Fold each of these.
Amino acid sequence: MKKVQFQSRWMPYLLLLPQLSIVTIFFLWPAAEAVRSSFYLEDPFGFSSTFVGFDNFIDTLTSTDYGRVARFTALFTFFVTFLSLGIALLLAVKADKVLRGASTYKTLLMWVYAVAPPVAGLIGVLLFDQHVGPMVDFFAMFGWPMQIGVDAFDTSFAMIVTAVWKQIPVNFIFFLSGLQGISKSVQEAASIDCRSGFRRFWTVTFPLLAPTGFFLLIINITYAFFDTFGIIDVIVKNEPGNNPVTLVYKVYLDGFRGNDLGGSSAQSVILMAMVFVLTIIQFRLIERRVHYT
């Protein structure tokens, strides 16, 4: 193997400098500032701060409102991850078998990938609008008068549907690539050994898709936690009231609208700790069941 030799010993560090600068300025510095602010009671205008120790963490963790938002975030993450992965896998399996018009079929499923989360939220608002929304009219035929922005369950349903619709194309692309990467000889051998297509999928195809599925599981949980901010912001119309919101959106509400910078910072630190623990669980427990060969 040919090795790349730099004439100057400082050249590798110079090439890494832009990326290290971005990570330091936009991640490490804000994270360190959030940890520092979580131990202080901050003046909303930044003129003074008082050290309060762990009071912000105690107030946050003992708050009934924070517990309600945490439970909704867990349910929201579960449904968005499970539904977006399940529907995308089903569509990818069907698309892999399409022989005529396959390109058109795949393009129709992928185009939503280019839609930004706030735009997806705006489309969700139009679909669930009380006056012109087709989804409201559709469910009204079954005796379900949806009231988005008024009823918490209806608002949660609209959020989950919009978030799932936005994420399906990403999962679809990866699942379809994974299916097309499975060797034809393996598929033919499986067809000879097992006539049942359903059983052949769960015993042969699905285990071979495990690395792709594990990667998408992490991506989808991260998406449900953080990247759905724009969708939620548009659907609750900046008037959360009793509407359900996620933990990330609550950090924004308490910090930028409630001017509780110390409490908001404590919530950010708790959220970072939760993501860290979740990542360890995923890689320590779930990855052991994934086989890459």
Amino acid sequence: MASPSTAYQGGSVLRGLPGSLFQLWFLGSSVLILLFIAAPLASTIAAPTWERLVETLVDPAVIQSIWLSMSTSGMAALIALIFGTPLAYILARHEFPGKNVVESIIDLPIMIPHPVVGISLLSLTGRDTWFGTFISDLGVEIMGTTTGIVSVLVFVGLPFYVNTVKGGIESIPPRLENVSRSLGAGRGHTFFRITLPLSWRYMLVGMIMCMARAISEFGAIIIVAYHPMTAPVLMYERFTAYGLGWSQPVAVILILVSMLFFLLLRAFSLPKRSGI
């Protein structure tokens, strides 16, 4: 532990720090971070010629891949809404042994390398496994199908949805639900009449974040379903087959789509708490 005299000397050094140097550090760091993110994206957007960009926009393969990315990402967000909301509610409202383990499992898809996600799904659903045989008998195929793509996107997008909705439900005072139950309403009635109206914005933001994460997925998709091609996979193929010039227009479209998602996220961002 630092002695009082050492702490005093340290405080003296901080008090002697010029305010202009402090402001220069903050301003300079902020500008560098913005440039670090914006400069590569701006150079990508400016790279393709207008003719090539228009040619890419009307390319049926590009249109199909973007639609596939959008539709499967939307489906993943819908699945996250239906199946992730109950889990988010349980984590927000209940304490139980092993809760930290459950929360760590939910966060795992954020941490683990994306090809591991694809390998894990195939390890479970491969035709040489009992579960793979079971779902195959039901007519469900994962490898090389849209179902496989949606499975991957749900896997990588769920943490964003569950954590967002969990935080939203935690911000709602439990006493409102307790009052509802004390007046005779059941748990389901209380959820749909009290919790849902107060947390719908968090759910919407969670779905947008889930979609935004899903639409950029690449590493797991190329293992589970290289075909049909999503937009990131198509961009990768054009880069490896034709070079940078033919992949940039697709990249521009993906950047613009991602920007649209985050503009939506800002538009629906949560208002300041008004003290419920």
Amino acid sequence: MAEKFKSDELMIIESARHIRDGETVFAGTGMPLVAAMYAQKSHAPHMCFVIETGSIAPQVLPVPTSVSDPKGMHRAAKLGTLREVLGCLLQRGMVDVGFLGGAQIDQFANINSTVIGDYQQPKVRFPGSGGANDIASHAKRILVICRHEKRRFPEKCAYITSPGYINGPEGRKRAGIKNDHPDITVVTDLAVMAVDKSTGKLQVFKLMPGVSFEQVQANTGFPITASPNMTTVDLPTEENLRILHQEVDPEGEYLGKED
């Protein structure tokens, strides 16, 4: 096991562990792209990578800086369009994992990437949905990665861009979403949380090494429970970190240069 690692490195490695070889993964920009690419270059070489701008099954070169970066199109099986990846793949139920980030995530795993404050005169305006709402509505499983801060985990999102369980265990069903009870997992630099389908709320299933449940609660804006089977995330190996820094992000675009 590695003796030294950064919390962001383990957060990316742990989220990638939730991707299985052979699955079709629709990844959003930023950390989801980095983690999905790490999965492809480590334990999931047969993962089918889908990028919002239309690239299907590329052999991604060092991590793209956006979904439009040509590095995300290298040797793609198809350079399609928004219609083909959102309509012909995602909305037909052919995506196993939808992988997202988010500015705010609430107790029901709803995601806000649109606005804080009044919609017309907001305090903060975020990039918006892009394909995030489609991904959260139609992917078989939903995986979310973000840093764990109290302001990022309010009791209720100021705006729901992408639905989690909306307002309870039957919230998606009442809203008419066909995939009404998906697995939703949120990986942060403090913990791994997943939706308890009996309540529709997030629950802590794993703690990052050296982190206490009390630290997670103190950095969460709503009361959160611990699973009776709560465990600790496995440490990374030196090989895990080598792949991350030398094959996924050699220029340090997301992770910075190695010490």
Amino acid sequence: MAQQEVVDQKPPSLRPLYRALFEEGRRNEVLNLMEIGAAAFHLQEYDLARAAFDQAIVNIESVYADNDAAHRARSLWYEEGEKEFKGEPYERSMVFYYRGLLFLREGDYGNARAAFMSGLLQDAFAEEEQHATDFASLIFLAGWAARLDGNGSLAKQHFAEYRRLRPNGPLPDDDDNTLVIAETGSAPRKLADGVGHYQLVYRRGREIQTQGARLETAAVSQSLFPIEDVFFQASTRGGRTVDRIIEGKVQFKKSAEATGDALTSVSDSSVLAGLSTSAGGAVAAGFHTITAIGVAAQGLSARSRTRADTRYWRRLPDQIHLTTVRSDPVSNGSRMVFLDADGALMVDRVATIAVHYDGKGNGFAFVRSTPEGVSP
């Protein structure tokens, strides 16, 4: 089938993204797959989202897995000075976040958990050195997936790790069966800075107005917990604030250096390699998620002096909010109201929620605030 035929078969709003995928080739393939996956997810075109994220994961794991083949691929990748986009740690983690949500929606809890754990692995990978992972939303979601899968002890471990990062974060009630997620704001931006534009810096998305979300049903009005600041994830490594990245080397802000040093540093690369490449319950039960990854440093620094790469995943949110509730199909028809920085209702940001129930009676609902960010 010709590329144009493939494009013509896609929903009209997604066709420009598929056209870009074919026209821009390998250099932007992963980035375009990320954009297609997110746009399709937001449009509830789940088959297309699944296919795009799966292909993106194949590309990412060809370079960012903790095994010999990936080590060799990383070395070759940098030595040749290629600039194929693979994403920063937060972007790669978010690919697995969306893939895990798709598994959750399908009732495939084992694979959902494996995807979230693989996202944690990517959070720890960086080009220049090892870092701790602190992606609280992925840890919570791994616990939720384990809970739905009937593994209470593993869920308890994940929730305990989550509470270390979010001491005030809510935990699911015993009878909760539905996960509700809301995303707000627009993606973190990458900008070139300094003489010659060799330095990469991060900035929060522009004109973000929506700061909170509240679930409203006939019986409940419940605020969602702001579990993840995606900009924070972009602009830190293991909790340490990145000042700028110069030729692949992170320069940290000195005032924030102590933050990440308190995190536990334990390496178990054999287990983590399994997390990266396996699915369906192959994750070791005792995995400790706040873990520094033994990433080989050699061969990871850029060999040629190039300007900062400012390409970034534009359809990511600024923040992720979530809650869990007890619901059933009869109570479907709730709504999500979005809030500004003062906690006031934004009357033009109200969305009806359609809860999807898998074959096991568990629900999943996802809402994205609009019109912030890039329209699908």
